[in-house]
Amino acid sequence: MIIVGAGPAGSALACRLRPRYRVLLLDRPLAGAGAASRIGESLPGAARVLLQRLGVYDHFLAQGHAERGASVSHWDSDTPTWFDPVRDPHGAGWHLDRVRFDAGLREAALAAGAALVDNGRHLRVSHYGGRWCVDLEYLGQGCAAPFLRTHHATVLVDASGRSMVAAKQLGMARRMEDNLICLYAHLPVDARDEDQATRICADTNGWWYSVRVPSGQRVLAFHLDRDDLELKVLRDPARLLAKSRRHTLFAEVKPATVGVQVHARPAGGAGLDLDALAALPEGFFAIGDAMLAFDPIASQGLFNALATAEGVAHAVERYADGFKDARDRYLDEMRTVHTRYRQRLGETYAAVTRYAHEQFWLRRNSGALRE
Ligand SMILES: Cc1cc2nc3c(=O)[nH]c(=O)nc-3n(C[C@H](O)[C@H](O)[C@H](O)COP(=O)(O)OP(=O)(O)OC[C@H]3O[C@@H](n4cnc5c(N)ncnc54)[C@H](O)[C@@H]3O)c2cc1C
């Protein structure tokens, strides 16, 4: 089996299917370094069962992730609404150190016997003679010239996140559900900042999120539309912080901004066309964000990465046992997940009536962005 992408979804799947299958994980050079600016930190308690099934739970607990504390939101008014995750029957969940989390899953996949190639580029995917072929240009060591090698497998999985590189190669387009962008910065924490709560707040042209993460920093994130004229201005950390502090919920957040960088990340919901995927030759799957990427307000992406890895592991086992409908069943599960997610997302955005006349909220509630 070949898995393109050794993020949480790809590593979890590799871990789950070894030692029964030979697994080759392909990733990009320097993916680990890129992880330093990763966002996507909260993991619900329901993920515990999935981590246990992968055999990584004890190691995960030893990685120093923080237990998720209470969250407070100013959503439809400035009256705070508190939620304490200890009320979650699955447990409170965690604020992750994303770098350690991703690295831990990848190490577990390698320890289970998966092979990793992360010095390749210009990947080409095709299907020939009933097998999937991946042509990969390897970077030569030192002055050596790059060389091409072809890998073959009966199962090919796209786990390359939002870039969905293998699916794109097969002519599949990403179905964008909206144009949300996340601007975020990891801010140093002021000595007086003892706050542990997750803070969420609606604004006229988007919504805010802030929490302290195990690295000791505070993440401050603002989600707005890609065509918003303020996007460029808010790339300046001082402006981003100043805008956040107009809200009482963030007024007491007092980090420094010197030397801080504001990153931008596409954050809108997106996914593959499941009917088009079903029409591809058998043995092709997609998991994690490559399959279905969620709006961050759902805080569901990492759980989905682990759950889809489990779903595809099950499908691959059924497929190997001769069940030809294994992929169709997996895709049916994905249709159900997508429908539930869209319904909850619609309800979440519709709950903000105070800015209902503003473009950001109008777009999400007019039905134009809903199926
Ligand atoms: C602003 C924002 C906030 C978020 N907050 C949360 C949150 O609080 N909680 C939560 O659960 N989720 C959150 N998420 C979502 C979460 O980060 C993703 O769902 C998760 O990273 C998906 O994991 P993945 O393995 O599918 O993809 P990724 O983590 O994107 O991993 C993909 C892997 O594929 C590799 N790759 C990419 N292109 C290629 C290529 N051409 N060749 C080879 N390899 C390639 C990459 O290097 C990477 O290793 C958030 C997302 C955003 C944008």
Automatic annotation (TrEMBL):
Q: What does the record give as the organism's lineage?
A: Bacteria, Pseudomonadati, Pseudomonadota, Betaproteobacteria, Rhodocyclales
Q: What is this protein called?
A: NAD(P)/FAD-dependent oxidoreductase
Matching entries from Gene3D superfamilies are given as:
3.30.9.100, FAD/NAD(P)-binding domain
Give the matching PANTHER family.
FAD-BINDING PROTEIN (PTHR43747), SLR1998 PROTEIN (PTHR43747:SF1)
